[in-house]
């Protein structure tokens, strides 16, 4: 177990795809985390080439993607463009 590590957090204005955000918020709620804590965990795992989620959470994410109509995959990550009409 890692001891608590003191850090400094900053507020940021990150824009993110709407359905993706809904799924992320639901996953954070599922694990009783803030959205920021969840994102930090995902990024730290990704930086080490590790998956941040176990099989149970991945199954729940698949359900949430269906609920929120999220059909994007990693392949779409560099091809997202905003619709001119909101």
Describe this structure in words.
The protein has a domain at 18-71. It is 45% helix and 0% strand. It contains three helices and no strands. The longest helix is centred in the first third of the chain and has 13 residues, at 18-30. It is globular. The relative contact order is 0.13.
Fraction of residues in helix? 40-55%
What structural class do you assign from the helix and strand content?
Answer: mainly alpha
Tally of helical runs: 3
Give the SSE order as H and E letters.
Answer: HHH
Low-confidence stretches: none
**Span between termini:** 46 Å
* Principal-axis shape: globular
- Please outline the major beta sheet: none
User: Which whole number gives the mean pLDDT?
Assistant: 95
Strand percentage, roughly?
A: under 5%
Explain the layout of strands and helices.
Blueprint (H helix, E strand, L loop, with lengths): L17 H13 L4 H13 L7 H13 L19
Nutshell version of this structure?
The protein is an all-alpha fold and 86 residues long.
Key features of this structure:
45% helix, single chain, 86 residues
């Amino acid at each position: 177990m890692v001891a608590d590590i003191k850090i400094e957090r900053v507020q940021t204005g990150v824009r993110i795809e709407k359905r993706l955000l809904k799924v992320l918020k639901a996953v954070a709620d599922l694990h009783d985390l803030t959205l920021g804590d969840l994102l930090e965990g995902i990024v730290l795992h990704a930086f080490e080439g590790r998956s941040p989620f176990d099989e149970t959470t991945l199954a729940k994410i698949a359900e949430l993607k269906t609920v929120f109509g999220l059909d994007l995959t990693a392949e779409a990550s560099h091809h997202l463009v905003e619709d001119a009409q909101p």
